[in-house]
Specification:
Largest sheet: 6 strands, mixed
Keywords: ATP-binding, Nucleotide-binding, Transport
Helix content: 25-40%
CATH superfamily: P-loop containing nucleotide triphosphate hydrolases
Bound molecules: adenosine-5'-triphosphate
Strand order of the largest sheet: 5-6-7-3-8-9
Family: Belongs to the ABC transporter superfamily.
GO molecular function: ABC-type transporter activity; ATP binding; ATP hydrolysis activity
Number of helices: 10
Protein name: ABC transporter ATP-binding protein
Structural class: alpha/beta
Strand content: 25-35%
CATH topology: Rossmann fold
CATH class: Alpha Beta
Organism: Leucobacter weissii
Order of helices and strands: HEHEEHEEHHHHEHEHEEH
Length: 259
């Protein structure tokens, strides 16, 4: 029987928003040498002392459209590296990463800002980097400014004169107002003051409820439980758990000392 257009649309909808397949990421680590070791190696013509270190070691998972997933794990387990590979700022050494739709990262919010341009110009610049046309940014400009809480008079000031909190607020405001399908969140709730953090929380929940795909890296278990239904636990660059968020959270919870 020939497929109807509805059926094919439904088929398209079920494709994952993010796929990682057997991903390996290695970093070269330089070892510090004592002065004596450096001196000896100079005469022996040794190269610099380095080691290849696997930050991610065969990581595979898929995130469905509209799903919200948290990645948990100890410091150095590979969470931010995973996020950077998904956002495309890093490439894997082996395996592959695919994303579908527009991906907006709340990684280093405002990272694309140019210090010598005004707040206004930076909104357009940052939005363009995130894939927005001038018209789309015009339409959302007031909303972005209002959300950021930056006073009008500062819009014509160079961003290098902003406080770090003001820069983060503006960066966050632009990112969450772009036309996005997948939102990458890295400890975003450390942005700005308490009132702004509450506003960010609300906005992220709103985006999730609109059916955006969420990929969250955080050490804040309360936050991820409120935001995500599924959790992946990384340990030394490998996935050691993939399932309900409550179980994932239990695995990373600090052990209570025995009395
Ligand atoms: N650019 C880099 N060069 C060398 N090593 C790196 C680089 N980036 C990350 N690493 C190493 O890769 C490992 C994983 O780092 P990653 O930042 O992904 O960990 P994480 O789980 O996000 O940690 P945290 O919870 O502390 O943020 C760490 O051992 C880190 O030292």
């Amino acid at each position: 029987m020939p497929k109807t257009s509805d059926a094919s649309a439904a088929a398209v909808d079920t494709k994952p928003a993010i796929i990682l397949h057997e991903v390996v990421k290695e970093f070269r680590i330089k070892h510090a040498r004592s002065l004596k070791e450096s001196f000896v190696s100079l005469f022996r013509r040794n190269g610099p002392a380095t080691d290849d270190f696997r930050a991610l070691d065969g990581v595979s998972f898929e995130v469905g459209r509209g799903e919200s997933l948290a990645v948990l794990g100890r410091n150095g387990s590979g969470k931010s590296t995973t996020l950077k590979l998904i956002s495309g700022v890093m490439l894997p050494d082996e395996g592959w990463v695919r994303t579908r739709g527009r991906v907006a990262g709340l990684l280093e919010v405002g990272a694309g800002f140019h210090p010598d341009l005004t707040g206004r110009d930076n909104i357009y610049l940052n939005a363009a980097i995130l894939g927005m046309s001038k018209q789309e940014t015009d339409d959302r400009f007031d909303e972005i400014v209002e959300f950021s809480g930056i006073e009008q008079k500062f819009l014509e000031t160079e961003v290098k004169r902003y406080s770090s909190g003001m820069r983060s607020r503006l960066g966050f405001a632009v990112a969450v107002h772009t036309e996005l399908d997948v939102l990458l969140v890295d400890e975003v709730l450390s942005v700005g003051d308490a009132a702004f953090r509450a506003k960010c929380n609300e906005k992220i929940l709103e985006l999730r409820d609109q059916g955006k795909t969420m990929f969250v890296v955080s050490h804040n278990i309360r936050t991820v439980k409120a935001l995500c239904e599924r959790g992946i636990v990384l340990e030394r660059g490998k996935v050691v758990f993939d399932g309900p968020i409550d179980e994932a959270a239990k695995l990373v919870a600090p052990k209570r000392p025995r009395r």
